[in-house]
Prior knowledge:
25% of the residues lie in helices and 21% in strands. The chain contains two helices and four strands. The protein starts with 5 loop residues before the first strand and ends with a helix.
Amino acid sequence: MSRYTHHIFVCQNERPADDPRGCCLHKGSDKVLQRFRDLIKENGLNKTMRANVAGCLSNCERGITVVIYPEQIWYSHVRLEDVDEIFKEHIL
């Protein structure tokens, strides 16, 4: 039986700055990941939910990518200021 009921994967892929596809890490995905982790802890969900580092999710041209399982919901163009709303609407 799985320890976690939900996983939030945040792309942390890094490419050279001149790569035309860009990369999520240079767009601030590390801050997005940390905000999800903070919200999980603040809401007492750290025993059932985990925010994970993800490698490339092949969605580079669509900005920072977040995938939530088990629902398999994909978010793109995620900004730090979007995280609270995603968490409130999707997780809570």
